[in-house]
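ping. complex inputs:
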Amino acid sequence: MDRDQIYAKVTEVLVEALGVDEDEVSPSATLTGDLGAESIDFLDIVFRLEKTFGIKIDQGELFPDNVAQNPDYVENGKVTDKGIAELKTKLPHADFSRLEADPAVENVGEIFTVEAIVKFVQKKLG
Amino acid sequence: MRWSWIDIITQVERGKSLVAVKNVSMAEDVLHDHFPAQVGPGGESLDPAPVMPASLLIEGMAQTAGLLVGYTGDFEEKVILGKIVKATFEREVTPGQTVRFEAHLERMDPSGANTTGTITVLDHKTGERHHVANVELIFSHIDQNMAGTEFPEENFVFTDNFRSLLRAAGMI
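pong. complex structure:
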């Protein structure tokens, strides 16, 4: 499956899971900020990706668990440099540009773009 | 009032499916408000039209599927309905009918589960069974998903309300 095919299927997943229009989905769209995803939607998206692509996604593999509550990652409402470095190691598919520009903890969701999911699936499919 | 929208568990297979049944009764207050007698467009009085609210049929499916998820995990997790993924209805349910909720576990992991389900109704006037709805749900194991939020130690989801149903079905 090539990148465009994966992108098309990821778009279908997001349209179904988030109730958004297809034209709202773009590679740089963020799941929470642009597409309105809430925490339970991440579980829904993981389930749908597994079914659509026939892959197994472990808990925390695509989306990290509870970053905001992790004192190793967050200090005074901001994700620390160490936190960002560790998240990058755990989530190489994610896009950290916006979080690095403003590391406020509420911006963690910004690392999950549509392109990040496509990259993740690409890697999982080998 | 007990927030119990299923009357009995009739079949269960751990990790796969659970079937529950509810008899819809005129004694349920909600049916008198949904819908009461009204005045028609020409001023004529229209009889009450009691219909089981679709939202409560979804709740019945959530209880059916939630018990399946809980049972599959030995009731160790607090299983909370997280999302109604899809619910499509094609028929109304009225008093005197028997509703059958059949839930299937599609996937379960430490963070939660998703289920599919079918609601059918037995019409005692004709003896026929009809399809009512399909309902897809997502459940969250809240202790796994809301770290930092403190919840009571005891499992407040599977309380006495459900335990009598589970005991009657031999599930606990």
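The helical segments of chain A are 3-18, 39-53, 81-90, 97-101, 114-125.
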